[in-house]
């Protein structure tokens, strides 16, 4: 597959059929994000969401030191986080501009959650602040044993505002622990992350091995019916935020259309004939 995905600070490759790998690429700055990066991140995943040649995505980061150290605070201090000069703009107008900026940032990260293709995040090294925001928008989180996590925002004088405080409590099911790490910004590691359910797997052999495991899982997912896989992600995300009854009702409506796919017959027939099924692009 030809690669015409060209975006600053990201490498996009296609290491296997129907599998895309998105690599954050600013290792000299610990992959810290500047504005163009989160704008490009949104563009990349919006495009992958509708690319019929992609069925699963692995999100990684260049270099051995960090997945991402979070927001590039130095760059932000010269922009959004900089204090206004006295009398330059009143509080209401400053708040209106900041709110619009925060909503834009939130929307960029939510693009990953709304992406129709499953995303597997491979977390290694320093994974602070934005790393947690971003990975919570992914579907599967795999970590290396040397990972260092932190909900870092209180250390720079603000409450995390692009997703962690809304998504982390739903991801781990221990509200006391969520409050502890969010209020203290303390660093925690892979063992604690898997114990509370923040990650589903820890790979002790390092980043390369973790990426390999992520790609292996992505290939497995990509071998399934794209109708079934994308429907499963949609229904899980919908049901997570709503009562069981609402989730069941939506599932019934969804599958009343999607059960009409010939993928069901193809999957059953391939099982009976003991062969690997091949599904058409969606």
TrEMBL record:
GO terms for molecular function: delta(3,5)-delta(2,4)-dienoyl-CoA isomerase activity. Pathway: Lipid metabolism; fatty acid beta-oxidation; Mycotoxin biosynthesis. GO terms for biological process: fatty acid metabolic process. InterPro entries: ClpP/crotonase-like_dom_sf, Ech1-like, Enoyl-CoA_hydra/iso, Enoyl-CoA_hydra_C. Coiled coil: none annotated. PANTHER family: DELTA(3,5)-DELTA(2,4)-DIENOYL-COA ISOMERASE, MITOCHONDRIAL, ENOYL-COA HYDRATASE. It is found in: Peroxisome. Pfam families: ECH_1. Belongs to the enoyl-CoA hydratase/isomerase family. This is ClpP/crotonase. Its main location: other. Gene3D superfamilies: 2-enoyl-CoA Hydratase, Chain A, domain 1 (3.90.226.10), Lyase 2-enoyl-coa Hydratase, Chain A, domain 2 (1.10.12.10). It comes from Delitschia confertaspora ATCC 74209.
């Amino acid at each position: 597959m030809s690669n015409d995905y060209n975006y600053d600070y990201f490498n996009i490759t296609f290491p296997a059929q129907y599998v895309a790998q998105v690599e954050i690429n600013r290792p000299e700055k610990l992959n810290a994000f500047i504005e163009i990066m989160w704008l490009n991140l949104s563009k990349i995943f919006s495009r992958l969401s509708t690319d019929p040649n992609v069925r699963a995505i692995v999100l990684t980061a260049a270099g051995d030191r960090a997945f991402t150290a979070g927001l590039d605070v130095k760059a932000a201090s010269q922009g959004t986080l900089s204090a206004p000069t006295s009398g330059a703009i009143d509080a209401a107008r400053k708040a209106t501009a900041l709110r619009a900026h925060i909503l834009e940032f939130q929307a960029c990260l939510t693009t990953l959650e709304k992406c129709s293709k499953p995303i597997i995040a491979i977390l290694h090294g320093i994974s602070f602040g934005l790393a947690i925001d971003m990975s919570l928008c992914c579907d599967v989180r795999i970590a290396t044993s040397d990972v260092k996590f932190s909900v870092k925002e209180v250390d720079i004088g603000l409450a995390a505002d692009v997703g962690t405080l809304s998504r982390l409590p739903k991801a781990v099911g221990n509200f006391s622990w969520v409050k502890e790490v969010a209020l203290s910004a303390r660093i925690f590691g892979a063992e604690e992350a898997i114990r509370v359910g923040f990650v589903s797997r820890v790979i002790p052999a390092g980043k390369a091995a973790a990426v390999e495991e992520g790609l292996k899982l992505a290939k497995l997912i990509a071998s399934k019916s794209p109708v079934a896989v994308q429907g499963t992600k949609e229904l899980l995300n919908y049901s997570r935020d709503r009562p069981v009854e609402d989730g069941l009702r939506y599932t019934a409506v969804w599958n009343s259309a999607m059960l009409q796919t010939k993928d069901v017959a193809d999957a059953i027939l391939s099982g009976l004939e003991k062969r690997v099924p091949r599904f058409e692009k969606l």
